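Lecture 7 notes: from sequence to structure.

We start with a single chain of 503 residues. Read the sequence below before looking at the structure.
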Amino acid sequence: MADEPSWDEIFSDHAAAGAPKSARDAAAHGTDLPLESEVTPSSDTAESSGLSVEAASLPPAEASASSGDRPMTRREARAAQEASDAQRTAAAQLSAVTQAAREADALVTFEELTAGTALDSGGDDAGTGSSTSGGDGGREDPPRRKRRLGLIVGLPLLIIALLGAGVAAYGWINYEDNIREVLGWELENDFEGSGNGEEVVVAVNSGDIGLDIARSLNVAGVTMSFDAFYDLLLAQESDPAFFPGNYSLQKEMSAQSALDALLDPENKVTDRLLITEGTTLPDALEIISETTGIPLAEVQAASEDLEHFGLPSEAVSLEGYLFPATYDLDGGQDPYVVLDLMVDTMIEKLDAAGVAADDRYRILTMAALVQREAGPNTDDFYKISRVFYNRLDQDMLLQSDATVAYGTGNLHTVWTTDAERADASNPYNTYANPGLPVGPIGLPGELAIDSAINPADGDWLFFVPINLATGETVFTTNVDDHEAAAQQLRDWCAESDENGSYC
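Now the structure, written as tokens:
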């Protein structure tokens, strides 16, 4: 296989950018920094066959790509296409008007114009098409002559109007923000009131910052836009204190009402436990404690009693074995009751999927890796699974930054350093150690489990998301195409603060 460039070579102009953003956020939306990007070769793997993935290579939002000869962004390409469509529409309209006029035999010929027949002066006939009165100029023009006169005046005006509309459309598409600023036409970006009555539960995880919460609220349909809530936070005199837990909110809330609701402990849900796909075990234990009121130390201690839960000998913790879902609680459970409920649910899901008891560890480990890497697009789960199986089949290192980061204890990021990727003592380091990591790196859901059992057909060896909000991902078979896709992701991350919050 062709030599691959190192992660640092691909993203050298961003290597010194600010601190990495949270990757767990993307997981909460299914837009976790996929490992395709996390599957990036380190600087000393130029001669090895590795999955060059974004994680470590992706620049923070503050590190924007050079604008000199950067590729056209999706937004710019879309704007150019819309402008072209507007111009073609104007041309089609003009053609239709002209054709209609011809069919009505109403267009004035050059000879008629020069002969003065269209604009009757009232004199004697001067040639074909002149007035039929011979010398009487006081008679009214025939209807056909009036139609011609109207076209002489109206057709140029119509052409000018259509061309003007095309120019206006092009300007609006490309400079809408500037035009709105000049004219004072601001778009609404915030709802009014305290919601529409439709409840939605939003999870605040340990370590979440304003960017994370602003995105979670917008994705859940609570706020109209990311900016509405984030700008409100920036305007506060002091940073609000958010506590981990699940909160009962409503859809279509104003940013201010959403903020007030999150800061009100009365809105914390204590009778329903919500654990989302991709959540890591430490975060799940904290959510359990915050929801039930059971001291965190007791929950953690119970989770370490692996013999009680009957886990396979390969299991190093409960990581991966708690099924992410919403559980109804009665408020009287001890930690073993809650954890037993979640472990039993996971075993039931595996049995229903036809996974043999002695194969649970392998499937959950692959499923957790896919869950961490995939976005919201269902098909991508199966393609990502295929990428990792292809690499395993070809004795290639998985080279997943997400696994490396998990092993270092950095559970909320997929960013890694050269030293971390070179550390073979980390049993989760898939840059230095062959095969799957020592165990799951999160809690996979049903979709991830099914993809680990039934990967798609394909020969891909690389993948990288180019839009972390939508999860749009590019799958490739060679490093050159992968590098081109990685550049698209860098450009996307640099477009806005909202995009950067995913990166």
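The longest strand covers residues 199-204. Keep this in mind for problem set 3.
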